[in-house]
Design goal:
Glu/Leu/Phe/Val/Trp_DH_dimer; single chain; Rossmann fold; five-stranded mixed sheet; 2 domains; alpha/beta; 12 strands; 459 residues; Glutamate dehydrogenase
Amino acid sequence: MSNYPREPEFEQAYNELVSTLENSRLFQVSPELKGCLPVVAIPERIIQFRVVWEDDSGKLQVNRGYRVQFNSALGPYKGGLRFHPTVNLSILKFLGFEQIFKNALTGLNMGGGKGGSDFDPKGKSDNEIRRFCYAFMKELSKHIGQFTDVPAGDIGVGGREVGYMFGAYKSYKNSWEGVITGKGGAWGGSLIRPEATGYGLVYYVAHMISYASGGKSSFEGKRVAISGSGNVAQYAALKVIELGGTVISLSDSKGALIATGEEGFNQDDVNMIAECKLKRQALDSLYSAEDSTFPSRFKYLPGERPWTHVERVDVALPSATQNEVSEDEAKALIAAGCKFLAEGSNMGSTQEAIDVYEADRKERKAEGLWYGPAKAANCGGVAVSGLEMAQNSQRVSWTSEQVDKELAGIMERCFWNCLNTAKEYYDIAEGELPSLVAGANIAGYVKVAKAMHDHGDWF
């Protein structure tokens, strides 16, 4: 890739996959599968376009729009749309690349893609956001469809933005179809979709805890540090609380809230944070409110992430953004007693942090930290997006219990697939827990590579 501009996020994701595959027995057992690597590393198609829209003062604004259609071997391109000033091709390529293998691990027929814009919805009126979404979809609608590419929401794209884009697509194409997931419940959305990534993350970790303890332990009594305060973090926190764990931290881009006592966050606290985020306010607004009880139970640390500030922790769930756990923060979590870490955010840990996790797992075996990578641990969101697509195709709506049961089953199968694949392609020392990051990478890659071979994409 030396003839391309530097794309650090994408290069990190690609190199992590390659190093895992090359350090395993995969290419010894199936040397022909190595031939897929240079092919799967290049997107099938990258769409880049301008988005011109009018703000409330009547002034024209222009942003960049993107869609990276990375791989369709297993089904239509599937992956979110991100509206954030930091959006660029490197970030979207990394997200789309990870999405290929994440979607493969769900067991559903979905390819991998990602898209978005450097548009910042913060501080914009509803009308400005609506005008931007219609302008954005004017071009994107030419390249997506229920059998081609089915986007979803991501950072900066919630129910409001999905609604506007769905309405724009319907208007431009004169077609009502399941072309975007995360829709409203009254017009084709799936129950449990907002909760899915956070719930699925906790379901995955519950299997990690059960396996490591021989079925003797669960979330009951565990101290759980969570970063972020968006959908993933909120619903992960609520599910941890439901299962008897104690949530000791939440955060946003402005700072972190850390529990000062044994109580942690309760359901009402999480609901207040959800309302705060719907108003696009920072956590410090809750902490500084005159009638707030937060100062008596939490400390607020401006500009900080929680990882070096939690004194005792059993489980860590990074759920904010990419590369949010550094090497030093990984060491701090291990020193604080953390035994399980799984990513609710995509590529939530730097490669140096992952090296720390894996070294600790090998050195201290069952006493070390066990790491669940994003492409496995947070695949619940896209899994329920796939279930939404299925419901749209059938013109039916499933109950929340049915969707939740399907989600739990997908996360359980994903866990055992990662675990058993790691056992198959790596030597596991006595008392050592298998590498879930290795298992996830190999299982996802093999499934995609074999499908691409069958299609004649490489030979």
